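Fold this complex.
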Amino acid sequence: MEQPTIKNTLNIDMEIPQTRIAKFWEGLKQGKLFATKCTKCGETYFPPTADCPRCYSSNMNWIELTGDAELITWTIVHVSPKSFSQHSPYIIAIAKLKEGPNVMAWFTGIKPEDIKAGMKLKLVPKYIPEKEKLSYEFIQSCNINFRDGVCRL
Amino acid sequence: MGKVAVVGIGHTKFGKRSDVTIRELAFEAIKEALEDSGLTPSDVGFAVVANYGGFSEDMCPAPYILEYAGLNPKGAMRVEAACASGSAAVHAAYWSVRSGLTDIALAIGVEKMFQVDTPTAVELLGRAGDVLWEFIPFGTTFPGYYALIATDHMNKYGTTEEQLAMVAVKNHKYGAMNPLAQLHREITVEEAINSRVIAWPLKLYDCCLISDGAAAVMLASEDKAKKITDTPVWIRGLGSATDTGYLGRRKDISTLQATVLASKQAYKMTGIEPKDVDVAEVHDCFTIAEIIAYEDLGFCKKGEGGKLIEEGQTYIGGKIPVNVDGGLKSKGHPIGASGVAMTAEIVKQLRGEAGKRQVPKAEVGLVHNVGAAGQFCYVTIYGREG
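Structure:
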């Protein structure tokens, strides 16, 4: 027997300020990956932060990353959240950047059976103008064909 | 100011509860905790409600739950620490008694997750991760987070998919013996390994359940506890710690540093060592999480968690029985309720009321509750002796 219920819907649209790390998003559009580096303690942050949690300084420099990275761990997501239902399965990886930080991003253009811990990756900016989508992703470092502001993967 | 004891417990059946609202579900657990302690709502000095929220209608559930259970006008708060919200409520209730501000406090945990469809539940849970840098750009789910941890653990220590499956087999075995559990079905390693992939290398049987459920525990000061009951279960040690939200900022992905730190605090406060724990409830939101918990809580050396389950040491009769109520895996994981429900189970074990699942001569019990992928951890140690 069907239970009696009240049907109720809530849709939430929000805008999340990115003013203080605007340069990061501008960089992605230009095909560049920027991290912040604290001028006081020298710690590098990617994803970038406008404030340093280590020394509480807000004087950060922007540095351009090489994108060179080494794979630590990965997963293949088959059951995705509602907002990603068009994308699954997708590979999520964490890799260590040459500049220090570990980064989480999608790993694209690779067959799951070819993935090995320690393999060399490249973190590359991703810009899809028609969708106004700005992001970054990992590819195998030998696959790189990128630098003019458009992702050719 | 002296010690604090658990003097009453309530624990609803976990599962799909489409017959009740969140207020009605919480009421069931509160009623049981009141009856178990022999107290009335007017005896309660302070109440803490654990609820992750988003799955159910109340954005601000505490006052409505209190009103529905006749607990007004007592002071209250709602706490949230993702999947560790329940333990956060127990800790906050403890502080309220330990500080002397009240003699009797009630910790209530409740979650109703089945009011939304599964993709929406996955979405709401995923948002306990780093929304800005992991969820919005990459759709990182909670099975995904723990899969990243599992892959790293497998690469570093040789932990196998079979060992992960063995955790599920154990927890299903005990879930089948627990009338309050959501699932009452034993499974085999083969069945677990061949179940569908959720986030590789984790399969369906490596993942906890979507659940509705509530639990409540009544805490009392030493003087009151001795008057209320002959079987108080004492809170002997507590510890809590946090870790980065952005998983990439952790030095070692195969360990939950918050567990290491929180358990060290709790062990230090009690003078108890891991080998002295008779029964443990650990946070098995995923099978890999239970294996890592064995290691991070000191039940075995780092990297040997897989071996510990393979040897059967976490069954009743083994070195350290773990999750003998079915765990989050088979009993269910109604987010806000889980930490309170784990507490209720340990109290049952230490009172000797766990029936077929009773760990013989259980004197010391431990509850380990993790929020998100180790962003929060609470460890609480209970004893029959104060």
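Residues 82 and 215 of chain B are 16 Å apart (CA to CA).
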